[in-house]
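User: Predict structure, ligand phosphoric acid mono(formamide)ester.
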Amino acid sequence: MAVRHFLTLTDLSAQELTQIIERAIELKKLRAQGITTDLFRGKVLGMIFEKSSTRTRVSFEAGMAQMGGSALFLSPRDTQLGRGEPIEDSARVISSMVDMVMIRTFGHQVLERFAEYSKVPVINALSDSYHPCQLLADIQTYVEHRGSPEGKVVAWVGDGNNMCHSYINAARLCNFELRIACPPGYEPDADILAAAADRVTVVHDPVAAVTGANWVATDVWASMGQETEQQIRLKAFENFLVDHELMSHANSNAVFMHCLPAHRGEEVSAELLEDSNLSVVWDEAENRLHAQKALMEFLQGHSH
Ligand code: CP
Ligand code: NVA
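Assistant: Predicted complex:
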């Protein structure tokens, strides 16, 4: 059986990504009209969470239910996953009983190993290296508010983290220019960057990155798993707050995004987050639901 997985955005072609975004926008409209689909009747999504989540869990679980299927929440605290059963064994067993699996974990290689042994599509619901589902929602949000991101300038202000890596991959697929502003020592992975060197630059000055940008995004300074670095990071990132002053350097039609959860007064000001003229974060969060429904339809349709 040929199975399609979604471990990074680059598992899709540019054309497939466009198709998923268009379907996500369509599914959102259908839901607003009260029209449901039941493509997943009798199907089960296994959801493995090794880190906390609000948006990802709710959007996958609600999305599956809305498409006629159901979802199973699997925590390492009360499954054998937390007691050291090998990934390869867990993958073979779990994927023999469910129709799709999403995994939120630490090391990206856990996802790769699981996918290698899985009989069904595996979705990356965040790893230390990437957060591709969030990018589906971010791209959908940009398209809905401003149209195609092709040829636009996107500024990433903050840590060179999993979200930043997925923005780099998005720059490749959507053909936009990405400027990353991070403190020295917090740059994204060199190999991920090198693959997009023709359209991604790293600077250490937020104003330089944001000047003329059409789309500005940030994220927390300490990601899940980096809690002990919180104090060091607060100091390193102190000049990286995204607020109205920084946004004043952007293009006049710029939008602001944040994958959430946000720390008001750290990476983003409370005023900017709540300014609906600039901030599209609530649409961005809601679009996780629609984009992942479109993704699950796509993966099911392309796995035989
Ligand atoms: N943005 C995001 O993935 O949120 P959760 O951690 O709440 O799932
Ligand atoms: N970079 C953050 C994203 C949370 C959705 C983290 O990994 O914790």
